[in-house]
Write a structure and sequence with these properties.
This protein is of the alpha/beta class. The protein contains eleven helices and ten strands. The chain folds into two domains: 251 residues, Rossmann fold; 45 residues, no CATH class. Helices cover 33% and strands 14% of the residues. The longest helix has 20 residues.
């Protein structure tokens, strides 16, 4: 069901797994294909351990319409996770202009299954795998945590014979369900003012009723949640009725209580990493610290303040200002060009 989750991540990528710069550890394996589609790739960071390492997967945000990992080959969180003896994978998946949402969810599942299948090759402990993400990536983690195991023992593809179940799941700005039919009630909005409602109406008209309802069920993390799901931690949402609303978190917490599921809600994103390492039963090394990211080069005072609202992409900035959004990059370049013109007149 192409629910076109257009703005599930209306934020600049300041997530735990997206901070990077040249001093952070580079991925040991870059753009590893876990499927046949161009976007079915991942980066993998491996710790220096003799015994098989637990694994954390990161799913990026972007509303299932944006976001990629192509230039994110150096990662501060990956370095920190590796320092604790844990492997780290940054996963790219198809977007809604080429795949339906349930197919994207299965991209995320396949990445997990692929790494399980190749656990000996990469020295991974296939019994200890967690995932987290921001916004859309948090929703993908929740979907994996609550969905029945996708392992198919009869599959011709050996990757699909592996389990898709997690040891733990986490994230921030999560949506409680991708059955958008429930969103008006959850968000306390009239249907016509509910995010993506027009898209839902369009696809409901396009699909046979049986298929439409099957896909609703497949994408309903609330209904699929039960007491056998792995431990989960998600942060509180925003005080509005948008796609990052606290109302989603409240609905998730209510359902977890009903189902006796193991869910923790936290105000502190830093707790997500600690939670994940604890659930993977990793003895945290207090003495090991990743290299410290230097303070970003200051913008000239005469430029004024950088734009407050920025796009969701992430790239290298001009002028040696590190990494940031294309909005920030354009603002920097515009000011650099102005400075060149001023100098040429002097």
């Amino acid at each position: 069901m192409r629910f076109l989750i257009t703005s599930i991540c209306l934020v600049a990528f300041v997530a735990l797994g997206l901070a990077q710069d040249k001093e952070f550890k580079k991925a040991d394996h870059i753009l590893v294909p876990y499927g046949k589609e161009p976007r079915q790739v991942l980066h993998l960071w491996l710790p220096k351990t003799k015994s098989p390492a637990p694994l954390v997967l990161h799913f990026h945000g972007g509303g299932f319409l944006a976001g990629d990992i192509r230039e994110k080959t150096r990662n501060r969180t990956a370095e920190m996770i590796n320092a604790e003896g844990v492997a780290y994978a940054d996963v790219e998946y198809r977007l809604l202009h080429t795949a339906m949402l349930q197919e994207i969810m299965r991209d995320c599942a396949r990445a997990l299954q692929f790494l399980r299948y190749n656990s000996k090759k990469y020295n991974l402990d296939k019994t200890r795998i967690g995932s987290y993400g921001e916004s859309a990536g948090a929703g993908a983690s929740l979907w994996l945590a609550t969905h029945d195991d996708l392992a198919d023992p009869q599959a011709e593809d050996p990757v699909l014979r592996e389990s898709s179940r997690l040891t733990a799941a986490a994230g921030f700005w999560v949506q409680a369900t991708y059955d958008v039919i429930q969103w008006p009630e959850i968000l306390d909005l009239p249907e016509e003012k509910t995010p993506y409602w027009k898209f839902v109406k369009f696809w409901k008209a396009m699909l046979p009723e049986k298929r439409f309802n099957e896909l609703r069920k497949d994408l309903d993390m609330l209904a699929n949640m039960d007491k056998n799901d792995p431990p989960m931690m998600f942060t509180n949402g925003t005080p509005d009725k948008g796609v990052h609303s606290q109302r989603f978190v409240d609905a998730l917490a209510k359902r977890a209580k009903e189902a006796n599921a193991k869910l923790t809600i936290s105000n502190d994103r830093k707790q997500l990493t600690k939670f994940m390492l604890t659930k993977l039963k990793v003895k945290q090394n207090k003495g090991s610290k990743p290299s410290v990211k230097p303070k970003r080069k200051e913008f000239p005072v005469h430029w004024g303040s950088p734009p407050k609202l920025q796009t969701r992409d992430y790239r290298k900035l001009p002028g040696g200002y590190g990494f940031g959004s294309s909005t920030l990059a354009n603002w920097i370049q515009k000011n650099l060009n102005k400075d060149v013109k001023i100098k040429s007149r002097e």
